[in-house]
Amino acid sequence: MKTLRGLYAITDSQLLDGGRLLPYVEAALRGGAKLLQYRDKSEDAARRLRQAEALRELCLRHGAQLIINDDAELAARLGVGVHLGQSDGSLAAARALLGRHALLGATCHAQLELAEQARQEGASYIAFGRFFNSQTKPGAPAATLELLEQARARFRLPIVAIGGVTLDSAPELVARGASMVAVIHALFAADSAAEVERRARAFSALFD
Ligand SMILES: Cc1ncc(COP(=O)(O)OP(=O)(O)O)c(N)n1
Ligand SMILES: Cc1nc(C(=O)O)sc1CCOP(=O)(O)O
Ligand SMILES: [Mg+2]
What we know:
Elements: E1 6-10, H1 21-30, E2 35-38, H2 45-62, E3 65-69, H3 72-78, E4 81-84, H4 91-98, E5 104-107, H5 112-120, E6 125-129, H6 145-154, E7 159-162, H7 170-175, E8 180-183, H8 185-188, H9 193-205
Parallel strand pairs: 1-2, 1-8, 2-3, 3-4, 4-5, 5-6, 6-7, 7-8
Helix pairs in contact: 1-2, 1-9
Bound molecules: the ligand Cc1ncc(COP(=O)(O)OP(=O)(O)O)c(N)n1, ligand 3NM and magnesium ion.
């Protein structure tokens, strides 16, 4: 299995509308993103399947891994990973459905106990956040840099830091133990694919 370390890009259906999804994601992958999460809260199952298939192809071409947000069944259908939050269903059931090699991510907010439970249920990585003000998800519970250090000391699993991460704030997260930074706005709220690629390269360089 590939090491989980580096930039974790997450899509957003509002930021990436109007035909920008594929070119912007490809730019992030060219810039070195290692994981890509397809996060689309719409009920349009046909569109979700079509877009996720296209993203799987892009990830394959660029040596990245695709994760589906919330939907273990879609992940199983595509043979990719899944990220589950606290109200998105059982991690253990997703592990049973997807098999032992699939990537399985878990939202742990700011609670080490949730991370311990996720570890026991077979998570591949544990995600903490939000660390900073997030334009994408302003209401998410807040996590601290101290919590990140405690998690690093306690768990051997890769740790993902999420929530308002920018090129300015990411170095501190990496210094305190984040294996990956998960980013939406500071990566994809850009005027061009070239700018997304530049930002992705800068995030990726933090892990060299
Ligand atoms: C890497 C990563 N970490 C946390 C989340 C948040 O998941 P969740 O709490 O289920 O919230 P939604 O993303 O579903 O709104 C995530 N998606 N990815
Ligand atoms: C999807 C999500 N989950 C979070 C959590 O804290 O669990 S914060 C968040 C949004 C991340 O987007 P941005 O990089 O634009 O802040
Ligand atoms: Mg969720």
